[in-house]
Fold each of these.
Amino acid sequence: MSDDMPRYGQRSDPGAAPDCPRHPGVRAVDYCKRCHRPMCAQCRVPTEVRAICVDCARENRLRRTTRTPVVTYGIIAACVVLYLVGTVSQQAERAFVFAPVLGYEQPWRFLTTAFLHASVLHILFNMLALYWVGRAIEPALGHWRFAVLYLLSAVGGSAAVLAWCFVQPATWMTATVGASGAVFGLFAAVFVLQRTSGADTTSVLVLLAVNLVYGFIQSGISWQAHLGGLLTGLAVTWVFVRLARPRRGVTPRRQEQRAGMVAALMAVAMVSLVAGVYTLLLA
């Protein structure tokens, strides 16, 4: 055998190896089996089969310690506290409820109304749905992404209520409360996560269809908020999933930073959308 022939497991041209994204100028010796990024000897963490990079190893440690859906529990606690406050003081509750006529000068109502509920059954059903879905997808998305998804879906639901004023101007004075818009955003997130992972989405589609139809036929339910939260949740989750895909030469930390910047841009886009709707309505 010629001395020029590479042995089994060796590169035919060692100089063709890419640089380690964590140590520019240092040649990689392997690829992470999880994120598929190149890694140098210093960044290589052996496992039972092949190896992972230091970033994935760090992420594994963080995941083991952040499985508790603290954001979900925090939202439930906030909703329960505000419901109890509302039973004692209706004036305090009125400071947070949303109606299109109020949201123009008091924009915080777009979000705070998602923490209010009209009855015991209203808060019970919404909190049960939040508990079931939040415990499933918060660990998958991560705490801050889940919080962004929930908050933007809540605002998206209120924005849809506002936009309906183009069709039915009388709703300009109509108040809406409830976490349903945000919860529909979470249902949408389940669909996106299942779809991208190749899982069967039939059950979640049936659940969405039944709840949407029920909102249309039952009086006193803001189907506009449901639809707005659903569409917002679809868009936000799709963006987060796309940004989380491994890319060679980009470290997980850098991807996390990009996701944070994009989340801020989505929030700005939502605010701009609401401002645009008000501009057209009041023109």
Amino acid sequence: MPTNILNLPSYRVLQVEDADGDYQIKIETVSPPDRCVYCGSGPLVGFGRREQWIRDLPIHGKRVRIAVDTRRFRCKSCGRTFYEPLPAVDDKRLMTTRLKTWLEKKSLRHPFSQLAEETGVGALTIRKVFDDYAQDLKDSLRFETPEVLGIDEVHLIRRSRAVFTNIPSCFVIEMLPDRNKTTVARYLADLPDKGRIRCVAIDMWRPYQEAVRESLPGVPAVVDKFHVLKMANAALDALRKTVGASLHPEKRRSLMRYRHVLLKRFQDLNELQRKRLDQWGKDFPPLGKAHRAKERFYDIYEAPSRSDAEKRYREWDASLDPEIRTTFGPLLTAFHHWEGPILSYFEHRVTKACTESSNNLIRAVQRMGRGYSFDVLRARILFVRHGAHKMKPFRRPKEKELELGYGLPSTEIEPKEISQGVDDGFHLS
């Protein structure tokens, strides 16, 4: 009799074939039932057989199909017939429970088509396994309301989606189907333990500010400082393009090639870069003036307090040369309309750097699953690492498992934890 290559103690292996690079294994149960599944009595008599094909974990890099010679019985007491139960086989699908568990974990990180190719299970079936698993995680996990909440958006499947992050821990805690004020406000209003929130970091997007004001009264909104500084750099870069448009192509390319000299902080430039910057200031006076204005604007964010930052901004605004004032027009307008949330940074000192990193993670997940629905992508982002719990200690395979080379999933029950969200530093493997 063939060796029990499956390592399923409840079954006896009858035959093993290597068919076109896949294993086809014929098995039967070791202990048939001796009681009726309906009335619980006996005796039972055989009443025929049928062959069922079941998928299992790949072995030696080959897909596995199992033919179970399933016996049918009739109860002498109640007269009803039934097929024998199949241990370690999923109740809903023709696959082993260990394959289903493996697919649940893998489907969070790998394309369904790839898993279908590895296991022989249909991509639609894998999608259904994923949906059930995601629903179980949704029902069992509770994300913790953070002290500092970040709101950003990412363009996903032809629409901007609002993304919420736990900024101190750098975790994604939710992604909504859109970024409309009503949708965002409803989510914020339903947050548990809202009293924990100290502040909310946002972009200069009015619906976010209004949603925070309505759903979290008294909680300050803080405009991310990097978005404000980015506007200063964008103004300087726009002037560079304007100046370059009237130059000889060679000089224009030089301005473009060394644009980083304009955008870096002056103290970070080396001697050669400072000389190049000084020469540009002489050749193109507006560019030199704009660079110095950009540097003074950056100095505002080195202020020790809100009042000092406000004073520095007023002085910067008043000192702008009329020749370059229009260059910084968008920045001046933004500061005028968003002065309160911008200056709130100096009271709370929070940024959305980790939120931006989370958006890169989301885009990576999207690239892995081209064609997937928003619900699938959202579940992947929220529930990767089993709901983004803190990583649990690695369970080393038992010595017997190492000898056999199975490396089967652990059946140990692990305690539940409250999740903070999805760690934006996880690796897609």
